[in-house]
Structure formats: structure tokens, C-alpha cells
Amino acid sequence: MPLLSLSNDGKVAIISMENGKNANNLAFAQQLLALLNQVTDDKTYKALILTSSDEKNWSQGIDVSWLMGSIQRGNRDDVKAFLSTMDEIYRVMLQYPMPIIAAINGHTFGNGVVIAAACDFRFMRSDRGYVCFPEVDMSIPFVPGLIDVILKAMPQHTFNDMILTGRRVTANELADAKFIDRTFESVEALQDGTLEFARTFKKGRAIFAEHKKRLHKPVLNALAVKNPPVIEALDILL
User: Fold this and answer.
1) Chain CA centroid to CA 165, Å
2) Range of the domain at 148
3) pLDDT tens digits for 68-104?
4) Cα–Cα nearest to 54, from 93, 119, 137, 112
5) In this model, does residue 238 exceed pLDDT 60?
6) Is residue 9 part of a domain?
7) Which residues pair with 169 in a beta bridge?
8) Would residue 41 count as lying in a domain?
9) What is the CATH number of the domain that holds 113?
10) Quick one: pLDDT at residue 156?
């Protein structure tokens, strides 16, 4: 079953998460990576919007039931493949040959926040939806390189507060912290505003890829160096 869909508005590609809570598991990661590559292969696209069709959720992060079930059933290779595929997604996004705008229309938790952080811009509706890191309540530590992904977009003091308290934060608070670039009063305004912004990008694709590769080199190095040994040991549960 497709967990995501690809559409377009002229030269703007739109990837929409289509599975309600949009929990992240191996199938989700594989489909997202495939769509990111499909958009890259189409040279007509100048910008990408990443959004959700659900009225309440953008992404509630890792599919914990799938994760724990896979480990309990001994399917450790599936978990490793998921974590490695997510790392490849971040590497692709951080060097993507066009701007990626997250149109955050609802709740965004855990790994969903990491996906948002990997985008170049984050727009969010202010009338619904919270952002939080529930890992502290579930005793699940971050794979270390993901912290670098988050901190390329979120101030460390904001992340420190959120990761240690697990509290839910609003769009307006995150706009004050500069994690959210723009807020909108309704989902309709969010959709229209994101699309209007995406249409402004008409420059060559190579310069975006090179700018981002240079800008995010420390994060890319962190993903390459810090994460593989942790993933191989599956050292993600306390």
C-alpha cells in the first residue's frame, strides 16, 4: 500500500504522507527515499513540498509498535535497514538539488521532527499541532548523528529543553525560536502560502545542491561517522 504520494503544481513537486499518523517504519522510509529520487530525476522540478494529507498529523515519528515488534521477533536486520535508509534520506535531503519546504499541518513528533529539520524551510499552521520529542518518556535515545541534523535547524537551548522535558511545543513558540520559518492561521493558508513560496524558486539546480553540500558538510560527516556503529550494534534502546 502506498504510504506516500507524489503530485505537482507546475514545477513544484509535492510529496504527501498518506497514512494517518504517518509513522516511520521500513516501508515508509523506502517509499520516501524512492520518491525523493524520482523528483530529482525529473529535471523540470524547481522546488519540493513535503506535507501530509491527514487533518491532525504531519508525522508522529518512528512506528514504535513496528520497531519493538521487529526486535522481539528477531527481525533486527529490518530495524537496521530502516535506520540506515533514514540516514540515506537525510543525506539526500541535505544535498538536494532544490529547496525542500515542509508544510507542517499537524502533530510532529520524534523522527518526524528530524525529517522536518532536514528540510530547508519549515512552515506550520498555528491553529493545530504540537511538536515534541517523546523519546525521553520511552527511554529511546537518539541515534547520535540525528542530533546534528536537528541542530542545523533548531537552537541548542530549544532542543535541550524539548529533549529533556518531552513537552509539546506550539508553532508560535518554535517560530520565536526560528525553527519554524512562517506560521499560518489555517491549513488552507498553509497550503497556499507554501505553494506561493515554492513557486519563487526558479534557479539552476546544481547551485542548490552545491550550496547545501558545503553548508551541511559537518552534519553529513556526523551521519557518516557517528551512526553506522550505533546502528550495527542496534544500540538504540535502554
Assistant:
1) 21
2) 4-198
3) 899 889 889 999 999 999 999 999 999 999 999 999 9
4) 112
5) no
6) yes
7) 131
8) yes
9) 3.90.226.10
10) 97
